[in-house]
Amino acid sequence: MKNHRIKQAVATVVFFVLALGAFSNIMNSPVDHNEHMYISAGVLAKENILYKDFAFLQMPYLPIVYGALYKITGTTHYLLTGRLVSFFFMVLSTLLVYLISYKLTRSLFTSAFMVLFFVLNEVIIISMQESSNYIMPIAFSLLGFYLFITSVFEERIKSPGVFLSGLSLAVATGTRLYYATILVPFLIVSLIYPASVGLEKRFKKVFLPLTAGVVAGLLPVFYYILKHPDLFVFYNYGYHKINALWVEVAGLASGMSAPSKVLFGWRMFLDLPGNIVVFIALTFVFFAAAGGLEFKKDSLKGLLGMEGFLAALLVLFSTITYFVPSPLRVQYAALLVPFAIVLTCCLYGKVSEENRQWVKILFVCLLVVSVSSGRVGLFKYLDRMFDTEDWVGVKIHGTSLEIRESIGNGKVATLSPLFAVEAGLPIYKELATGPFLYRVGDLIPVDKRAHYGVTSPASLAAMLDRDPPGAILVGFEGGLDMPFERYAAENGYVELGGDYLGGRLFVRKPGWK
Questions:
Q1: Backbone phi, then psi, for 336, in 5-degree steps?
Q2: Is 473 helix (H, G, I), strand (E, B) or coil?
Q3: Cα–Cα distance for residue pair 1/182, rounded to 1 Å
Q4: DSSP 3-state assignment of 493?
Q5: What is the pLDDT of residues 70-119, one digit of tens each?
Q6: 413-427 b/e with 16+ CB inside 10 Å = b?
Q7: Are 50 and 236 in contact (CB under 8 A)?
């Protein structure tokens, strides 16, 4: 008992240290241009209807969460709040990895190492750093898995827990669309397990509650689909096809064709030690577990069990899903990493006692190799932990207020709308997605642009002529900013001096008409 308490205390300390690393990392990581769209959508969602009143190029749940928080708290520190939301979901994800691991292995040692492999994985670190829809669906997909395996047993099925599992999976899907693929493994397993229960009972007690939870969780999505079907389809599907074309035209086409996607995935796998660690751990534990099987009597299905079979399907579907978007991004593998870790835990439970010591030695070696590689970036900002003035959310907010003092209350034309909304200044809704919708605007049919709320480099000047901005902010989007600079030069705007975190601010000359 005393030894167990010591292990629990050590595990608690490890969790706390990892949380400090994650917090310092999230608070200090440079702002990404994705955040301009997500944060602006959250601010606009307070008073506007998503999709109808402004464009948003993802599923709706994250801006709904942001908008609700902004409205309830009354905060104007929008980016800082968004980063805190990311930290919350990172902590929740980590806690769920531990709970799932311990339930499957009953080993504090193994559970602690699974947490380390998760938190120190570079894909997970990249996914948690920004205020975007990468880390939130990880948390809800893990929650869905945990609720499912704690609600479905041979001797008893807890249908309310299964319903909540479906609800959690729906929230993950409503946050990022490609998480819809993980619904399929759960639905398959709900018709197969528990094996000792008849199909009719499984259908009533597992499949139907799971489906009901999914439907209930997606009701807000159905609302947007029914109210604005063409806008919903365009922003969640049509835009991404056009964006893939733009990426190809712009010469940024890595990860576009099937062969290049495989090559990109392979390079990412080799370039990130955290992925190699998880792969080696999973492979070794699989062979250690299968080594004791007598295949004439046992089967792979018996080796995996319900939890392992579900985790294996999730790994399979996650791998397939990873290669679907174009172009590929490292963060898309965030769907795969946690379920590979979960599958490792499922197999560990089948490893014989005599072989577990070798597995534990492997875990220690893998952790040492991963940390000594120098690629783990979880703690790189730890020295700035308490320098609150240097937190990116605080710096952005302070700079935004300086911009407001310089220009007053005019509308800001910019592909970096975060600075404007942080200052409480109005933005052009056509530019609410930052560079994303704007850069593909000229590839969208002219007769559709007004309906989709699109402007483009070619049509920007006409839009600004109809509603002249009080200020123009550039400097963060390279060549995409050039039409803004050209408009400023041709319409009597002068550059203000000052440090705007690398940005350049233009205001109209007094008396210019």
A1: -85, -45
A2: strand
A3: 39
A4: strand
A5: 999 999 999 999 999 999 999 999 999 999 999 999 888 899 999 999 99
A6: bbbbbbbbbbbebeb
A7: no
Burial class of residue 25 in the structure, from the number of CB atoms within 10 Å of its CB (0-12 exposed, 13-18 middle, 19+ buried): buried
Dig out the tokens for 439 from the structure: 């850069």
pLDDT digits (tens, 9 = 90+) for 436-468: 999 999 999 988 999 999 999 999 999 999 999
- Which uninterrupted H or E stretch holds 413? strand 412-414
CA 161 to chain centre: 25
Percent helix, percent strand, percent coil in the chain, to nearest 5: 70, 5, 25
Q: Nearest 5°: phi and psi at 326?
A: -135, 130
Non-local CB neighbours of 5 within 8 Å, separated by 6+ positions = none
Token pair in block for residue 4: 């167990």
What's the start-to-end Cα distance of the chain, in Å?
81
What pTM does this model have?
0.93
What are the residues facing 507 on neighbouring strands?
471, 494
* One-character DSSP codes across 17-62: HHHHHHHHHHHHSPP-HHHHHHHHHHHHTTTS-BTTTB---S-SHH
Nearest to 395 by CA among 501, 472, 473: 501
Instruction: Record the tokens describing residue 155, joined without a space.
Output: 């001797």
Length of the chain, in residues? 513
- Cβ distance 277 to 117 under 8 Å? yes
